[in-house]
Design brief:
Strand order of the largest sheet: 3-2-1-4-5-6-10
Number of helices: 14
Shape: globular
Strand content: 5-15%
Structural class: alpha/beta
Order of helices and strands: EHEEHEHEHHEEHHEEHEEHHHHHH
Distance between the termini: 37 Å
Length: 368
Amino acid sequence: MTSSVPAMVPSGVAPARTALVVGATGIVGQNIAARLVAEGWTVHGLARRPRHDMAGVLPVEADLLDLPTLTHALRDLRPSHVFFCSWLRQETEEENCRVNSAMIRNVFAALPEPGLLVHAALTTGMKHYLGPFESYASGEPPVTPFREDAPRLDLPNFYYDQEDALYEAAAQHGFSWSVHRPHTVIGYAVGNAMNMGSTLAVYATICRETGRPFVFPGSPVQWNALTDLTDARQLARQLFWASTEAGGRNQAFNIVNGDVFRWKWLWPRLAEWFGIEAAPYPGHATSLEETLAGDAELWERIATKYGLAESRIERLASAWHTDADLGRPVECVTDISKSRLAGFAGYQYTPDSFTDLFTRLRAEKLIP
């Protein structure tokens, strides 16, 4: 595999504001890369299948689990900052722990001079408080709002292993670190494994085309209780802040939009954007994965009818993940006081997170 990078930086010299974004094609990676480019940084975007159409991002192709190939791909890079925005889902949480912590360790092992790093940021999420998918939000309900000083759960959790790998490398090489824990991330990314926003856009489009009821698929708790979300742009703001300001160093931070809402309030507003009515809530969860399971050919017909750019429903919808998030039987509200008190002032209105995404999906001809 090869990498596309600028001329080699002299040994022992770390360029000012040069970033390596690990997982640059994902929903988080794309947004932090775009933010860094807009701020004038040199940005290298690492992925197994890097995109070559991300403005200002220099693509680097490598498999994070293939250390020799990764070492070759990073041989000329001496970044000042690393942003970890990548993970690989495995069959068990034990495998998640092994594989996803290895990816972080491999990046530090592959960089030719990790001692030149200034800061490394890791994005994890609410599973830090809720537990891994196989025991998601089970057992004793977590105390809300979620706060960063909550003790780790007594369960295997790959987020903990990723954090430990980051801490070890920071101690060894002398750079500062930050950990960022978003709630469900809403933003633009095609082919992303966890993308509620585009999943709901596909679902609403199918309901409009077929006349199916637009039923909220989640649990009664999620329908009725207060909750929050994280716009990928808001996450990028915090990642940038923590990587450049003293208040963000060597800390873990929750990150959500800054407002709260109830799905029973927001759902009709999402329906209205698509020109449909929200169906009455049935009082129980309904699997969106099962609802969309046989719709691959239907989406192909919709794509043909409207000349859409993507005819593969699996590239746009990740219903299993939306089911996991909206099916939670517990309240999920997040406290972001810690980063606010440290100097982060970002805010994002959640309804705009959805409508901005839907507008872009339509402009990119991904939905009609």
